[in-house]
């Protein structure tokens, strides 16, 4: 899952907002930076910063290196902007996504369930877990989920009803693949949202995803979770 990298007529890359900010930080520093350094500068969770840094590496806009160290201990992985803004060579991530999605759809007995489980794991990974004492109500849960969705390129819109939230998603970063394998891709997205809400301890659950109600609009329907307090936690599979 990554923000799509496009090029304008002059072949200069156009990035999503968060990824562009990460690139700007690398450019301004001019020196190799670790994930935590970038996260603090940009104001992102470290997992989200790593996600965007790796996306820049994949696009040919940054390089991943091992830090030179004279002190004992494991060297950090650091990132540095490349000398040119023009990606080198063609990359076919859409083709790769279609091939892997076809593999899941054709070989697994319940591809939708498998995709949802994978999405939940990634949602927990990308979300920033609040402090144990921090209270996360429904509105805060929606805000945190929307932040992750925005960083992934879904362009979430504002929520009108905080009691039974519906998040309008104005852009699907995997639209072409989803049109061919809706069960797998939409289940992956639903699982992603469930994983985020679970990780941030929101009193909400992603109940269903209504895909393509308009050509560029999907609706994520959330419902309250009974018996879960806003500040409580619950045991999750493979907790961190």
UniProtKB/TrEMBL annotation:
Alphabetical list of CDD domains matching this protein: HTH_ARSR
InterPro entries: ArsR-like_HTH, WH-like_DNA-bd_sf, WH_DNA-bd_sf
Gene3D superfamilies to which the protein is assigned, alphabetical: Winged helix-like DNA-binding domain superfamily/Winged helix DNA-binding domain (1.10.10.10)
Highest taxon above the source species: Bacteria
Name assigned to this protein: Helix-turn-helix domain-containing protein
Species in which this protein is naturally found: Amycolatopsis alkalitolerans
Native organism taxonomy: Bacteria, Bacillati, Actinomycetota, Actinomycetes, Pseudonocardiales
